[in-house]
Write a sequence for this structure.
């Protein structure tokens, strides 16, 4: 499934209804009960209202995430300040934004299957809420991603995918050359090749992707396979950046020169690594600056991957290209840790 993330700026009350209607349309694609659809509408209203009343540069990022029979509605609230000085107090029932149908962030947390928040005074707040179908995920991995088009474009020339199988997960990020509709075609072709053979050997996978993208603009492409044991197999062609990040260090992951669909080597090297614990795998297109850092954000590394992706995309996006950042952690965070 091609992930489609909708970004809605939220600065006045009229946009609260826009967010609520958008999440209702997305709910139509999932087998959610009427009560859960109602819960999603409340979450959308609460988060958007908080942005209008308390934040600057606020926006809601909405998407449907699917893994086989499992699926989630994801609501990611991102703002540029002022941030919360006491997150625990804001999560208490009774601490409510006046005039909303729920009970502030306490209600959002209670109605969510997955919820997390990170806030830095002066920098802003990112909140994730996921509303799930009844089918439980099959593995212990958590994936979060932000995928934004070049400013002014209606389609994104980047894409990402993830597929779980038993005790392992495969993830990929693709960046079609340039931006706009032709770049989006190349990215979708790369995504389709990944969905066809997500766990193939590197030679098989990249040759399949290369054939699929022939005649298109071509794309940069990287794939990682992570086992529950923590073993990571990473490979890439072009300028998708990969890193394994722990509290002690960030280790860059190597990719090879070339453009999938245009020119690649017949042999693609795979590099073996070990997932840090605690830590994350982070992959991003060149729409995100390589100078990102966790240092200004105490505790961010332990947050839900969607929150990590939201914070880093907010503060390190170049603004001159499509921008995608994907984060994988080795444990599923279904509740808040603050």
């Amino acid at each position: 499934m091609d992930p489609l993330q909708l970004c809605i700026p939220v600065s006045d009350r009229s946009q609260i209804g826009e967010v609520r209607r958008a999440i209702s349309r997305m709910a139509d694609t999932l087998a959610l009960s009427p009560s859960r659809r109602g819960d999603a509408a409340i979450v959308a209203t609460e988060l958007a209202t908080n942005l209008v009343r308390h934040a600057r540069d606020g926006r809601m990022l909405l998407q449907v995430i699917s893994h086989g029979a499992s699926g989630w509605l994801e609501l990611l609230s991102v703002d540029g300040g002022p941030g919360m000085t006491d997150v625990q107090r804001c999560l208490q029932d009774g601490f409510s934004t006046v005039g909303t149908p729920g009970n502030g962030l306490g209600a959002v947390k209670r109605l969510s299957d997955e919820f997390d928040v990170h806030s830095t005074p002066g920098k802003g707040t990112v909140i994730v809420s996921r509303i799930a179908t009844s089918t439980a995920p099959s593995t212990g991995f958590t994936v979060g991603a932000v995928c934004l088009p070049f400013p002014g474009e209606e389609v994104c020339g980047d894409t990402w995918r993830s597929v779980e199988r038993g005790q392992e997960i495969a993830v990929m990020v693709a960046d079609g050359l340039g931006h706009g509709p032709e770049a989006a075609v190349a990215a979708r072709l790369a995504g389709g090749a990944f969905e066809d053979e997500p766990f193939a050997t590197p030679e098989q996978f990249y040759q399949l992707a290369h054939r699929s993208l022939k005649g298109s603009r071509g794309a940069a492409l990287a794939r990682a396979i992570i086992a529950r044991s923590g073993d990571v197999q990473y490979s890439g062609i072009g300028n998708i950046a990969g890193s394994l990040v722990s509290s002690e260090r960030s280790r860059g992951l190597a990719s090879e020169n070339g453009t999938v669909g245009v020119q690649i080597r017949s042999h693609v090297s795979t590099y073996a690594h070990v997932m840090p614990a605690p830590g994350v795998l982070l992959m991003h297109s060149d729409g995100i600056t390589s100078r990102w850092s966790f240092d200004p954000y105490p505790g961010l590394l332990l947050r839900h991957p969607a929150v990590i992706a939201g914070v880093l995309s907010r503060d390190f996006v170049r603004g001159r290209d499509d921008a995608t950042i994907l984060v994988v952690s080795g444990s599923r965070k279904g509740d808040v840790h603050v």
